[in-house]
């Protein structure tokens, strides 16, 4: 995969995580192109013209990793072709609600040899593969997902204005990843070394299919109960939920990273939502929780706690997530039995 070294990196999305990936790529010495949908392009503010993003923040890391400075991007555009043409790595870094809109524009410009990294597992690889089939796209691309972002990142906001500055709170040393299908796993993991924003992840873990990676996304477990109920106790180790770092610490920083509850944990201050209308609910309930429940129902597993999150989220937001949530049909796997699903996830054999 060393051909990726000399190819541009395309980052899709204009939010916090996308800006972080783009800045990391530029600071890592790579040619980088940042794409945002036309209807949201103006939200990039001065980044559109100056093409600059400053990376800073606490940057807590178990191994002392940091990446900071003023990054200059090569291209900032709302033209998908301009963003991805002749690129090697494509980073998908936007909320799952935008999958369809982005993929409709992306698929016509895919080229053989491209590697697509979903940096938060929301079963996006299944949706992309489904849309490629429907569009008749046969380009030979590698597609894979990571269980989470490699960092905790927030846009610096002053007086209600988003500044062209990103503050990184922490860097993850471990993430789970997998390719769809699994026969592309070696290529996907080898391509990681050409993604500068994944440099801190020195202990990547090979997951068992992208279904494993979707279930390894801790956001539905971490975000939904805490936001909906103000609690964090479910079916997990009590000492983790009664720690300041919660389950996020050991997941990304190692088993020993548990901050006692009687200590102040400044890293987490200000990182939670201030409204119920936040992606912690509007994404993690209709995507994460709803897909978990759909798979559980298909294979005869009882998940009352997850179902309660969907119901409560629906009542509190006024949005019927039971009706609007992402389904197995949306992923193109609703008609498959266990054997057929395994054949698809592992070998790419699609049972129509």
Description:
There is one protein chain. With about 350 residues, the chain is α/β, with parallel strands linked by helices. It folds into 2 domains: about 1-215, Rossmann fold; about 220-345, Orthogonal Bundle (N-(1-d-carboxylethyl)-l-norvaline Dehydrogenase, domain 2). The protein is built from 16 helices and 12 strands. It has helices spanning about 15-25, 45-50, 80-85, 100-105, 125-135, 185-190, 210-215, 220-230, 240, 250-255, 280, 285-300, 305-315, 320-325, 330, 340-345; strands spanning about 10, 30-35, 50-55, 70, 75, 90, 115-120, 140-145, 150-160, 160-170, 175-180, 205. The strands form 2 sheets. The protein has an 8-stranded mixed sheet with strand order 5-2-1-6-7-8-11-12, with helices on both faces. Strands 4-3-10-9 form a 4-stranded mixed sheet. Strand 7, helix 5 and strand 8 (about 140-145) form a beta-alpha-beta unit. Helix 4 (about 100-105) crosses helix 5 (about 125-135) and helix 12 packs antiparallel against helix 13. The longest helix has 15 residues, at about 285-300. The two termini are about 30 Å apart. Mean pLDDT is about 90; it is low at about 230-235.
């Amino acid at each position: 995969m060393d051909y990726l070294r000399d190819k541009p990196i395309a980052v899709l999305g204009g939010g916090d995580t996308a800006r972080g990936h783009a800045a990391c790529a530029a600071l890592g010495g790579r040619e980088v192109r940042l794409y945002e949908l036309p209807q949201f392009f103006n939200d990039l503010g001065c980044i559109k013209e100056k093409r600059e993003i400053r990376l800073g923040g606490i940057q807590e890391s178990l191994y002392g990793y940091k990446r900071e400075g003023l990054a200059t991007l090569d291209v900032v555009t709302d033209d998908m072709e301009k963003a991805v043409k002749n690129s090697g790595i494509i980073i998908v870094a936007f909320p799952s609600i935008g999958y369809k809109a982005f993929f409709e524009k992306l698929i016509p410009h895919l080229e053989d040899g491209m590697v697509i990294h979903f940096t938060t597992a929301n079963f996006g690889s299944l949706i992309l593969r489904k849309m490629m089939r429907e569009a008749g796209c046969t380009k030979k691309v590698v597609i894979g997902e990571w269980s989470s972002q490699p960092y905790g990142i927030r846009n610096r906001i002053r007086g209600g204005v988003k500044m062209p500055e990103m503050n990184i709170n922490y860097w993850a040393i471990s993430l789970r990843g997998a390719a769809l299908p699994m026969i592309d796993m070696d290529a996907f993991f080898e391509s990681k070394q050409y993604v500068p924003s994944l440099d801190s992840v020195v202990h990547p873990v090979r997951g068992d299919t992208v279904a494993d990676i979707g279930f390894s996304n801790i956001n539905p477990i971490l975000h939904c109960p805490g936001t909906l109920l103000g609690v964090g106790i479910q079916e997990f180790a009590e000492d983790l939920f009664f720690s300041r770092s919660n389950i996020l610490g050991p997941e990304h920083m190692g088993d020993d990273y548990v901050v006692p509850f009687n200590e102040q944990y400044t890293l987490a201050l200000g990182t939670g939502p201030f409204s119920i209308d936040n992606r912690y609910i509007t994404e993690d309930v209709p995507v994460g929780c709803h897909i978990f429940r759909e798979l559980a129902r298909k294979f005869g597993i009882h998940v009352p706690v997850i179902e309660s999150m969907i119901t409560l989220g629906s009542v509190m937001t006024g949005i019927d997530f039971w009706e609007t949530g992402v389904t197995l049909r949306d992923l193109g796997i609703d008609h498959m039995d266990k054997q057929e699903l395994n054949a698809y996830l592992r070998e790419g054999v699609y049972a129509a």
